Each structure stands twice: as structure tokens, then as C-alpha cells.
Amino acid sequence: MTLRIQIAQLNFLVGDIEGNTEKLLSTARAARGRADAVIFPELTLTGYPPEDLLLRSDFIARVEQALQRILDEAHGVHLIFGYPLRRDGQLYNLAGVVRDGELIAEYRKQMLPNYSVFDEKRYFSPGSEAVLFPLNGVQVGLSVCEDIWEPQPMAQAVATGAELILNLNASPFHTGKAPEREQLVQERARQHGVPVVYANLVGGQDELVFDGGSCVADGQGALVRRLAFYEESIALVEFETGDRLRPLPGEVAARLSEEEAVYGALVLGVRDYVCKNGFNGAILGLSGGIDSALTLAVAVDALGANQVEVVMMPSRYTADMSNEDAAEQARILGVEHRTIPIEPAFKAFLGMLEPEFAGRPADVTEENIQARCRGVILMAISNKKGRILLTTGNKSEMSVGYATLYGDMAGGFAPIKDVPKLLVYRLCEYRNRLSPVIPQRVIERPPSAELAPGQKDSDSLPDYAVLDPVLERYVEQDQSPTQIIAAGFEAALVERVVGMVDRNEYKRRQAPPGIKITRRAYGRDRRYPLTRGYWTPLESER
């Protein structure tokens, strides 16, 4: 005898309760006669994370209506899916089991994450009990996402008699996350001697990307199935029943390298942000530098060349090679492009401001005016055409404030906001291995904002080979300057970098949202006050 469970690794839109319900029902209809049960991701009906929509009574009422519709319309297959509802006067993150008009089991998520990008304790009360239901003679236990990361819920379910664990997930991507969670699933299965089915969400939601990669581990902890990353996928998993429940081996999708995984997250994140928000496409400024080159490649891979346009906006300081390389990449990728020099606008602003600037030497002010001229041009085109403006700044620049408010920071979405500069280079090289779309000179030449004669990033910043490791330690690992210096970095350099990071929180707070790809991104991950009396100790620590 066999047990057939279908994993529905699908992309749901936050707040689209009716659309998500229809997607679930369509999947259920297709599964009749093929599967005994279908497992969906966490909070299937609302999408994840619904955030403060959960505080609205009308939102919860529509979830109740959706659940009733599923009870009325779903027949012939067990459906295991997630939703938020009130029980005993409290709101819970639930996993329900529906079969032929009956809600036969309902599990309350026990472990509520309240770290990094998660704040479930703001909304939900925790459950405390294991929930099992029979499926073809097998006792099946339920758990939801974070429950698998802590030992107690699965141990409780197995002690209650569970022979199989179904885990509904909305686990967002960051570098190294996929192998980490797979190893965890395998360890839990091995520890308790029961198979685990791990069904993950896929899709972009604001700054988060859910990368899929759903998997199945047998009772010995061996990985027997893995679904593809970054795409919707429906897979049927068959189990042999009898003395010991055993999932039959099936397709195991390939693991991704770090560059593949990050690039996939960027593409999916851009595609879903643009499409789910109803934009007609995207526009960006193409400078001939490496950051805008990577952003353009991602945008085209996400949306298609016909949905992307670029504008080259040279100034008096723009090198000929920058114009040439930008035009060459636009030609290779087949995107609409035009050139709008900023010199007339720059001159007009300088003329208007001449009385205010009298007697003061040129400085960063004039550089920022150039960036803001470009921002005005791009935002005007974005407004007129309904195409979202993609900004092109990377994490290294955002960390130290090497960006202009209302200039190159102006826009609606920042695809590489969480990508350190050294990783930008690796991603460009990775993309060119697939097909050459970024001119090699863009990758090889020293980076420059080209806002002053002969300017290079190294005039204002430490070399990225030194800067990025310091930033990783300070921003992502919360190491103190003393710890960073002890790791071998020059004290003066550390003091300089830490000071730049601390001073520029106000800029980061005004930046567009962007895709999280590191363990600690700016925004929901790292929240520092703008106005504060505490500054990171420097001299006093040494």
C-alpha cells in the first residue's frame, strides 16, 4: 500500500485572500485521483508575511469566508494549508486539514519567531499541543516553519504517535540558508526516526524572497526529494506503508552555488515586486559602471528586454568609455535606451545657486547636484510611463553613505541594496558565464562615481577588498571595533569605517526597499535609532 502526498510549492500574494484561495482550490481539483493529500506553505490563504493586515478584523473575517469556501468546494483529497484565525479569543498561526467539507484537524504554531525579519509575537499567540490526523492508516503530525527549528514540537508529536511530520513553511532566502535548513530537516528526521515533508513558499514579497527548495527526508535522515529553487513546483511524493513508512526516492533538484542562489533571488525579487505591484516595467540609469550593469542584467532576466529601458545621462566628467560601455550593454541586451546629457540642468542649477555659493569653493555639493539632476530626469520618465525606477546602489555604498539622497538613491526599488561590492563583481562574472552581457571593461576598470575630474571610489573609500570584510563584521556580525582590530584590521581604518556606518543611518532609512540576500540586511533586520546619544566606542576600547 502506498501513501501519496503532493507538495504544492507555490507563489502566493500577500493579502489576496480570494486569489490565493482560488489557487489552492485549482491545485486541489488537479490533485484528485492522483494524491491522497496536498500540503501547501505557511499562511497559504493570506501569503507571508501579512504584517499588520493581521490586526484588521475585516481581514480576518475574509479568511474565515475563504476557509468556509474551501470546506464547501474541496472534495476527494486531504488539503493541509495555513491561515490565521481566532480560536478561544486569541489569534493563531494555524495549519488546518480539510477533507470533504470537514475540518478534521487544526494545529496551532508553537514556536513564534521574533528575530531578524520575523515579528510573529506581535500578532499571534503560541500553541502548546501536538496535533495528529490519520491518513491511509498513517498517523501524521503537523508543524509550522519555526517549529522544525526547535526540538520540542517534533519530539512532542512523535511521542504522541506521529509516524510522519508535515512542516508548512515560509522560509526566506539569505546566503547559506538552503543547505542549513536541509541539514536541520535531515537531523530532525534522523533523530526521531520518522520522515519529514518540508513544503516551502516561493516568490518575492517586498524585501524578502522565498526560494522554494522544498524537500523530503526519510526516517534515516537521507534527503530523497528536493524541489527546484525560485520556481513554482508541484511534486508527488509516494510512501511505502507497512512496518515502517518510507518515502520512495524521486527527483532531487540540483543545489545552487552562492552566485546562482543570489542571482536567482535578485531576479525573482525584481520580477515579483514589479509585477505584483502592477508596474508597466522598469527604468534605470545606466552609467557604464558595474553596479548599474548588474542591475540591468537582473532586470532584463526578470522582466524581459521589452519591459526595461535605460537612460544614459553623461556629465562633463563622464568618460567616453563609460558612454561606450553603457551603450554596448544596452545593445547586447536589446533594451530601449537613450542619452539625455545633464549639463544643461547642471548649469541651470549652478546659475540659480551662484549667489548662495559666492565665496565658497566647490565641494561635494556640486557632485550631489549632478546626481540629483539625474534623479529628477529618471523619476519624471518613471512617472510619465508608469515604469518603476530601479536604483543601482550596493550594500557597501549604502553602509558608508556613499550615495546621494534624492539623487542616485531616488527610486522605487533597489535590487542590489544588500549586495556587497565584492559580490557584485562575482555576480557579474557569473552572469557573463551564462552568456556575455556585461562588457569586460566594465568589470575590470576602477569604479568611479564620475562626479569630479578623475574621480575614483578609492579617493573616498578604503579598497573594497578591505572595506567589505570590515562591514560584514560590524554590520552583519555585530562585532565591536576592538574585535575587528583584533582580527588583524588597521585601527584607523576600522575607526573610519565604523564612523561612516554610524553617521549614515538617516540615509539608509530613506532608501528604497531592496532584496535581502545576506544574513542581516538594513531595514527590518537592523534597526538603529536616527537620533541617539550612544555611539560605537572606539578610542576608549583600545
Automatic annotation (TrEMBL):
Gene3D superfamilies according to UniProt: Carbon-nitrogen hydrolase, HUPs
PANTHER family: GLUTAMINE-DEPENDENT NAD(+) SYNTHETASE, NH 3 /GLUTAMINE-DEPENDENT NAD + SYNTHETASE
Name the record gives this protein: Glutamine-dependent NAD(+) synthetase
GO biological process terms, semicolon-separated: NAD+ biosynthetic process
Binding site for ATP: 285-292, 392
Keywords: ATP-binding, Ligase, NAD, Nucleotide-binding
GO molecular function terms listed in the Swiss-Prot or TrEMBL record: ATP binding; glutaminase activity; NAD+ synthase (glutamine-hydrolyzing) activity; NAD+ synthase activity
Domain of life of the native organism: Bacteria
Binding site for deamido-NAD(+): 368, 397, 507
Residues reported to bind L-glutamine: 115, 171, 177
EC number: 6.3.5.1
PROSITE patterns for this protein: CN_HYDROLASE (PS50263)
